Amino acid sequence: MSTQQISNQLASVGSQDGSSMSEASGSASPSAVAAAIPRENEKTNQFGIFMILVLAFIAGIFMASKASGQGATPYDSVAMPEALNDATVVRRVEGIAKSYASTGNGDPAMVSGYFKVYIPAKMTDPNGVQNISTVAQEAASLLVRAQRSSNQQVAQQITVLLFESMKGIAEGNYHPAARINAILLLSRLDRQAANPAAKTPPIPLVRQVLPILLSLYQDANNVDGVRAAALHGIHRHVRFGFPDIDQANNAAITQEMTALLTSAAPAGRDAKAHAYLQRFAVDILDTVRADQDNSLGTQLVSISTDKKRPDLIALYSAAKSGSYGPAMQGQVAEPKKVLTSWGQRVLQAFESEIERYDRMEKVKPDNSQPVNPESFLEKKTEETSKPRTGRGGEMEMGMDMGMMENEMGMMDDRGGSEMDMDMGEMGMGMEMDMMMGMSGRGGAIEAKPQPPEVIATRKKLNYVLQQVHLGMTGYPAAGIPTKTPGGLLASATPEQKPTVEKWVTAFEGVVTVLNDSSLDDMKKFREGIEEQIVVLRDLVGEEFEDVPAEELPDELTPVDPLAGVGGGGPANASTVSVGAN
């Protein structure tokens, strides 16, 4: 629906009730007419509110194409109609849009104005940058609501309206946060929504949206956030809409992703942020490659063993290489060196957690600090109390808590105090333990919930181990696969296979200890981690030697981006046709 069509519909809605809107608009601007309506009528007369909405959207439509690039901000903004600065009016507008998304009921002109004027104005408001994500999410929720309704025509109409409004923001000179959210909204537009009941994935609006995303990513003048959002959208389109991608766009995507995967982080971009983006490139190249092209598998193994690569991309590449196992039969000349490189990364992850624990050690209080004067006024009678043994042999908790802290701190082998827990709970726990032991009813003690520090370490190290295990076997479960394996286990020759199996079995033991629920406190868990560090060091052995950085290649040999890809022209549609792609 064009801007002129929306304007005509809004004008016709106002004239149906014999109002003087047309006369007023002939002598003054629509926003001025809206401002002249008494505030009392806005709050008490529903018809008056409706008229304000009509006038507001007429004003907004004619102002939406004008930028407010003058002033302090270097970015443009879509002008907000004055009447839509009133909270009552805004609630009415939002109510109409929600009703339309759910039931299909609601004035189409108002719905068009909401998506094409109100949402863009809110997203590009220079004084409301902190609200951009919220506004974009509200628009996305209405789209989802429409997709879940039985009226697919409504979903298609909202898709068209969002495409028309978000395309302008994504490509325009607007605040990067507004452009990023607009790009993410564009990426979520589908010609066929996902159906959870039928377990069918969504089909993105590939032919209309993908060329926009690709162009935004290719433009080096765009800030990293905009390019990253476009890359995220490309990833979604490739994942769910690959059959609809024409050969020309396929070739362009392959070339861009190969360049990203083989490049070093550009100036101004953090190496880990670059590695994060490279993970998208791995997924995309894995999808768009020709069926018989397995060169990406060997490239992933090469990336995973490159010491200059951050763990974020190296371990991800190791895991992804697991799906190429049988196709790489005999192409990994020395699996043992690959395993040693992967093992070194695992070892470093374990050692880094011990270093983190060391940095978490509590600092003892400085005894040189002056004593609190109020302490001299307190009675010291409790200082002379001594531990006593009560009836039945239970230890009574009458000793001074400060003395217990000192004694427990001395018992701590790391020199710190473990007495940060609530003293009442600790006292009860100790008393119960003593009673259990003295009464002869002791037995296997159930494991306690592990502290947050332990849980965090387990999650991190489990993830690292799983990535490497996928590279070795192609399967997520620990141990030797019972079915046809993948990864290094499948690509190894009969002579190399025992070495790979040895590593798989050793890693299974490390995983078992790491997830042992009986290691339910920091001390026991740390001891378990340190034991596995010894195992990993023995496994890595002395064969692993650090290669000087200057001897490492600057980049990997890139895969031919046009291998197996034919010619063809892009289908860059300038308008949206949701019904067919």
**What is the overall number of helices?**
23
Q: How would you state the average pLDDT, rounded? A: 75
SS-derived structural category: mainly alpha
Number of domains: 3
Question: Regions with pLDDT < 50 over 5+ consecutive residues?
Answer: 1-71, 381-442, 542-575
Largest sheet: 2 strands, antiparallel
Shape: globular
Widest sheet: strand ordering: 1-2
What percent of residues are in strands?
A: under 5%
Care to count the β-strands?
A: 2
What's the alpha carbon Rg, rounded to whole Å? Answer: 33 Å
H/E element order: HHHHHHHHHHEEHHHHHHHHHHHHH
Can you give the helix content as a percent range?
Answer: 55-70%
Distance between the termini: 19 Å
Structural overview:
The protein has three domains: 1-188, no CATH class; 191-289, no CATH class; 326-359 and 449-545, Four Helix Bundle (Hemerythrin (Met), subunit A), CATH 1.20.120. Mean pLDDT is 75; it is low at 1-71, 381-442 and 542-575. The protein has 581 residues and is mainly alpha-helical. The protein contains 23 helices and two strands. Helix 6 packs parallel to helix 8, helix 13 (247-262) runs antiparallel to helix 14 and helix 15 runs antiparallel to helix 16. The chain is globular and about 75 Å long.
